């Protein structure tokens, strides 16, 4: 049912309802703004977190273990995730909230205009009604005066004690008054015709147009709200695949950690290349002179013949050091 | 390459590296904790937002327009979204961070134990070496003493001026010293054999075991980090379908807004059921007495015959009121 048909007499309620509609829209806009601010804070905190742990890492100049590289990848994915949520914050702010505030201003202007038009048209028809009723009353007043003159004339006519002149005078007065009545009746009729015409125009044209505009405006407000609600979900859905990629990136970073490779890297970082020391050799001071004394061949077979035996290092064919030497090296 | 083979001489570097490993793990645990705190703040803010706009609505007791119902649905979906992100915060806290801290403590204890074992074994082998070298030096010292006695004896033997008794005495002294040399040599040999055996055990068993444990511990740390990195992404992936449903719910809420239904609801809320007033009737006072005066049939045909015409309301067959009357009703 159209507002023009059903609510032609509900100006005050439509004033109230359309004001509520604007208030509701602005309340929703406020919700969108606060939703955006939450998202902005979230983005800022995520960014700061990624930055904090990223910069700390580079300062320490960590080795390129896969567990470090993957953590860097995690931080990078987190930063990307923050970036996608920032897109959401921006759309909530610029697009949704911005559009709502702009639309709310339009709505206020339109509403003001339509209700003003209604009130103006209403005032005009009321003035017309007043004029018509005033004309009607004047006609009634004059008619009552004519009735009085009629009664007086009828009384004089049957009264045997009055002069003909008095009767004639009363008759003339009545005749003059009936003339006044007829004039006032004509004025009343013209005003009544004019008013009825204006009233028909008011109800059938003016009010119909205003009510239609108010109804269209209010329906457009509902449609706008519906579209904005949809956008709340849709903007999340749009960035959702990109966000999924970030999380998959974190899973991949986890999978890239190679514990065996990392422990091999520790070997490459710290290995001296030295082999573990072999047995210490027996040095038989009792079989050689102090000047030509040499180690024995690392077997303990008691006193040996004097002579230069091959060096233990040469026997083993590799660079070997004694426990006492590597102790000095590492300390 | 195993740490036992390549890093047998890198106790200090492995001490440093495993400490770095624990520090890195704890830094990552700190990252997880801060990530969780960001999520907690986000959840709290989303919850507060939903609550704030929900309670305001019920207070105002808004009519059940579809745009209001859909906004309620949006708030409910937002609250659900916050709930799903709360699950993420809880998993980050209880599972990821909690497990990391527990594991870090185990790691610290194991590391301490392994490095302690290594140092203890190293100290023991050093003591053994010291003992062996002290025995060797004693043998050398005694041998040098024997050499001096040998030279003296040889000098006396070719000196024609010394007595046979002196020569015999020197020979006995040499003989006694050679006995001492032989005893010290035996001690040195025994200590050398023992040391070499201990040293082989140290390098081939003790150090291999400790290095293996350290390597396993360090590899387990990398594996644990990798698993935790994966979880960071996986826990988001697990709630992702539920979160998608929230966003689809918002889209559905937007689609449910029915502008036509809402404007019809305004009609149902405010309609008075009255029809617009018809034309005002001509009241001809001049044709009736003041006591029996009645409206004319709303046509302006000049003076009428006296008589009671059907009421305008009855003619139109509907409840109609005059403009002046509905004006009073609505004000």
From TrEMBL, chains A, B:
Residues 115-198 form a coiled coil. This is Formin binding protein 1 like. Residues 1-262 form the F-BAR domain. It comes from Scleropages formosus. Keywords: Coiled coil, Lipid-binding. One of its GO terms (molecular function) is lipid binding. The keyword Signal does not apply.
């Amino acid at each position: 049912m159209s507002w023009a048909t059903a609510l032609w007499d509900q100006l005050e309620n439509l004033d109230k309802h359309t004001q509520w509609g604007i208030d509701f829209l602005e309340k929703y806009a406020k919700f969108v703004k606060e939703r955006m601010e939450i998202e902005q804070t979230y983005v800022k905190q995520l960014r700061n977190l990624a930055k904090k742990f990223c910069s700390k890492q580079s300062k320490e100049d960590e080795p390129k273990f896969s567990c470090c590289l993957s953590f860097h990848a995690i931080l990078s994915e987190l930063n990307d995730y923050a970036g996608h949520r920032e897109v959401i914050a921006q759309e909530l702010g610029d697009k949704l909230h911005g559009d709502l505030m702009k639309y709310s201003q339009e709505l206020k202007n339109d509403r003001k205009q339509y209700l003003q038009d209604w009130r103006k048209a209403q005032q005009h028809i009321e003035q017309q009604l007043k004029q018509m009723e005033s004309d009607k009353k004047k006609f009634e007043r004059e008619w009552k005066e004519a009735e009085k003159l009629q009664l007086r004339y009828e009384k004089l006519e049957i009264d045997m004690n009055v002069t003909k002149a008095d009767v004639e005078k009363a008759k003339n007065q009545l005749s003059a008054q009936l003339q006044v009545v007829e004039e006032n009746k004509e004025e009343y009729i013209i005003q009544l015709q004019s008013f009825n015409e204006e009233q028909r125009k008011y109800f059938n044209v003016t009010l119909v147009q205003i009510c239609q505009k108010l109804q269209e405006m209010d329906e457009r407000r509902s449609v706008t709200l519906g579209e904005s609600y949809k956008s709340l979900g849709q903007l999340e859905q749009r960035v959702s695949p990109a966000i999924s990629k970030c999380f998959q990136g974190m899973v991949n970073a986890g999978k890239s950690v190679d514990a065996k490779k990392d422990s091999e890297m520790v070997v490459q970082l710290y290995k001296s290349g030295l082999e573990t020391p072999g047995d210490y050799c027996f040095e038989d001071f009792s079989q050689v002179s102090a000047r030509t004394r040499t180690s024995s061949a690392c077997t303990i077979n008691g006193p040996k013949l004097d002579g230069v035996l091959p060096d233990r290092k040469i026997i083993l064919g590799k660079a070997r050091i004694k426990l006492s030497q590597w102790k000095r090296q590492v300390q």
